[in-house]
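note to self — DONT lose this again. spent like an hour looking for the file last time. sequence + predicted structure for the chain T wanted, 248 res
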Amino acid sequence: MKRKKLKSPKEAAIMFFVGILMLAGSLVIGYLLGKGTLDQLAMQDWQQTQATITKAKLRSSSTGTGSRRSTVYRSTAKYTYHFAGQKYEGTRVNIIPTSDNFTSYHRDLARLLKKHEKSKEPLPCWFNPEAPQEAILKREMAPYQIGVLCGFFLVFFTLGFGGTWASLNYLLERIAGEKSFLVKLSEVLSQIFLNVAWFGAVAPIFLFIPQAIEKGASSSNWLWFIFPAGLVLTTLAALAGVGRKEKS
């Protein structure tokens, strides 16, 4: 990683504060992505049954102000299903319960759920055989959700980690010296940590998207990964360029 050369304690403090805020945002995004990944893997062993939709709704809320105001959507539902002669009620629709307006995913899903609510026609759902009260209607993350979360995580984490590390490294240089072993070690460890985080962020792309396409999802779903893939490639190219300049 090419570290920004800080010139004063004030600049280092500002960089640290901004970096911490961006890191906090990346942790929230990373939690959603990581939990969604683990949930989807675990749910592949869940059993399928038929659910009856008792209530379906498309929830909407406004974000931003003025000309930047926009509406985000989230599909919700209540449904019943049976297992071992007992009736259960579920409310979980999809793995990542967030609102957005990146695609028409939630609006399309809400229309489908309302259609089944009206017709009383059963809809497939999956439940945990070890805890039958746990159930879900969509046990795969939508491809666009993976792409969006990966992209935002890469941006927030890379900038946040870079700013925080630069400010802490500035302090370390002031204490131990710019060419000390500790400074060089911190540079190596930070690059390893950053690469591991990148790999973890893009892992769901390689885990789930081929499966989604095999199940009939459009190949256009790959377009959602141009953003995170582009970020990784351009950053690696920038690092390679920095390495060539330092050698010359």
